[in-house]
Amino acid sequence: METRKIQQVGSGTFTVSIPADWAAAHDIEAGSTAYLYTHRDGSLVVRWNERDQSDLATTDIEASGLDPAATARTLVTAYGAGFSTIRLHAPGGLSDAQRRAVHTRARDLTGVEVTDESAEAVVVRGLLNTGDVSVRQSTIQLQYVTLSMFESALDCLTGETPSQHVVDRDDDADRLFWLLARHFNRSLQNMIELDRLGLTRSELFTYFATARQFERIADHAVTIARSVDHRDHSVSEALATETRALGMDARQVVETASKAIVDDRASGPHDSIEAAERVVRAARRLDDTLIDRAPRDASLVARVLDSVIRTAECGANIAALALRRSLAEDSGPRS
Hints:
- By secondary structure, the chain is α+β, with helices and mostly antiparallel strands.
- It starts with 6 loop residues before the first strand and ends in a 5-residue tail after the last helix.
- The chain is flat.
- The longest helix has 36 residues, at 295-330.
- It folds into three domains: 7-47; 58-126, Ribosomal Protein S8, Chain: A, domain 1, CATH 3.30.1370; 134-325, Methane Monooxygenase Hydroxylase, Chain G, domain 1 (Up-down Bundle).
- It has helices spanning 20-25, 68-81, 96-108, 135-157, 163-189, 191-197, 201-229, 237-262, 269-289, 295-330; strands at residues 7-9, 13-15, 35-38, 44-47, 58-62, 85-89, 112-117, 121-126.
């Protein structure tokens, strides 16, 4: 890093010099035009050429040899990376199954649709303006879906909720997470995206990192539901009740910790971290007793407890994000 003195020319214009070696390396000379971009977080970005389009404007993906699932997965990855236009093509033409996979997956993603199609290619374009996206509201929606899924998964253990209900809702969680991932990645490439979202880099990172934890919790909910779905017997009522209670404690950790992120109402990140540790210890104690249980009960409950532990740890991770944010705010500039 180098420092430069700000000079004032005339009555109001300020100037700053740039390193001569750097200017020579980039073919900058007297009379060259510089492009200045001011941003919401106080940053001033200087560019020496004006790009006609973003690095994330278009991606052209050859889908030859990809099966339908891989084709859909590639589309989702390109969407999450932030590309505005995604063209999937194959020299010999896309198969009907690939086309169906692209159309189905595009319907599952927010703010995009198939806009062009030919014998060789399908084009998916983003149509949602960044300024119309509320990162905070999307995170709140993801929080609601995730916590609802996890509670329903625990209800599957006691037979109160069909497991398919949880599995079906995973698409809602994925849709919200990929929307947040898309705008997070776009903002890494272009700070104008941050301004349109109305967030600073640290704020957007905190929301994205929280969303990542929610997405993992949703996956754990699906794991619990599928584990219960594959059983061929009922777990004893006492064991199911005790396991569900631990799961609800883990859910409470997540809910309390995430309030500090989405509602800006922290009851104390340290309290949430300590609560998560208590849940983990209690779940491991119960797991240690499974050796004395019926093998079929022990196998199922062990899988459920593993997801409960990991969910509590996700809650602790969210609390750590809240703690980091509060420390940054406390150490920020004061008037």
